[in-house]
Amino acid sequence: MKISVQKGVLADAKSQAIILTLFEESKKLTGLALEIDKLSGGLISDLIGNGDFEGKPSQISVVYTGGTIPAKRIALVGLGKQKEFNLEKLRSAFASVMRHLRNMNVKEAAASINLNLIPGKKEKVVQAAVEGALLGLYQYTPYKTVGREDLKEMKELTIFADLKDYLLVESAVRKARIIADAVYFARDLVSAPSNEMTPSIMAQKARDISRRKNVSCKVLDKERMKEMGMNALLAVASGSNEEPKFIILEYSGSRKKAAPVVLVGKGLTFDSGGISIKPADKMQEMKMDMSGGAAVMGAFIAAADLHIPLNIVALIPSAENLPSGTAFKPGDILKSYSGKTIEILSTDAEGRLLLADALAYASGLKPETIVDVATLTGACVVALGDDVSGMLGTNDKLKKEIYSAAQNTGELVWELPLWENYHELIKSDIADYKNAGNRSAGTITAAAFLSKFVGDYPWVHLDIAGPAWTDKDKPYIPKGASGVAVRLLVEFLLNRVKK
What we know:
This protein has 499 residues and is of the alpha/beta class. It has helices spanning 31-39, 43-49, 87-103, 122-136, 166-191, 199-209, 222-228, 231-237, 291-305, 351-363, 378-384, 396-409, 420-423, 442-451, 486-498, and strands at residues 2-7, 18-22, 60-64, 73-78, 108-112, 156-161, 215-220, 245-252, 261-265, 267-271, 311-321, 333-335, 341-343, 369-374, 389-393, 413-415, 433-434, 459-463, 469-470, 480-481.
């Protein structure tokens, strides 16, 4: 969908629909809503007076103007109670109203965003509204052939702005567009079936990203990984005919010698569980086990397109985990890239093996900080549900930065402890570590395992197993791949620049 910014007044918009946001329990109309109500002969006040619109969160009412103003329709969307209002409610409101209009086969709409909805956050308000509008309209349709002509699309949204605010609004819209495009990219990667999203295809997507200015890409193949001793990663791939790839993206946004921020994303393009095979039920969803890698690639795209003045490295270890006569087995011992040895208790605890080699490689880059993102444990879903990512790490300052970014973006995280007593649960009798603990504290023991490979660098691990995929429509996340962590990571990177 095209988004443009236009100088002028929303009441003059010759649009199929204009969008107005209203708070719940508003005793009287003010500002733009009052102006349009007067011009339209009281259409809005009639709706409210008759109890047809109360302004509850994301409530929508559409009324036809009958030629009283240039627009054909007025679409009202509720923001809820003003004292409870936040950016997340704004995202949800714009996502809901845009989807509603699309379902009515409206092709274009116009809106004017009240920059003072949250004092001191004018740019954030615009960004949230536009992100909501774009992200709520996402559809994954490349494989739809039957009834394709019935698919509905919104073509354009025009944002009207006062002359004094035009540049601010235009800048915020541009930023929101870049970030939303990056989320679309991640959602597309995760939504693709695993026969169309192999490690080799992920690597090609990374090469495409490297066409940008100040971006380079290197892909390590199986032979190179053997030479380097990335045996944990190679073991995961050993049961599949698909070649593993170790993807390295580098963005130079700061001085050459500045330490990079390293983002690591699990890129398991399909996870059957290997010899420790998963149940058949919902196994088809295991194409989404590369959501961490997709999120890191998406955030990297946005960082490059926003010209963030940091050096950033994205590492995506990518493989398939399948059972075969060549697959690794419970009881095997692997020597990882770091030189530390790992006893395999379960081949379904494979993501941490990919990350072990990737995190060890990251520490060799002498980074400023390391953040990894992975759909790592079902235990995290049990602990935190489907909407929240688990956060664990070794650096309190870094955890606070991630938490702050999560609050601003609505991609929520919750910290779990990484105390020393948990580390006892991953000690092996015959190797340095084992790749799974017992049934207790599965998310924590997985992170404890990862911590053994990051060295002394500040590190945070995000377990996105819950929110990476949704079985139902959410306000600005349609059913399926969420693209979670893209916006969180971009916000985290932008905040680091400010500090």
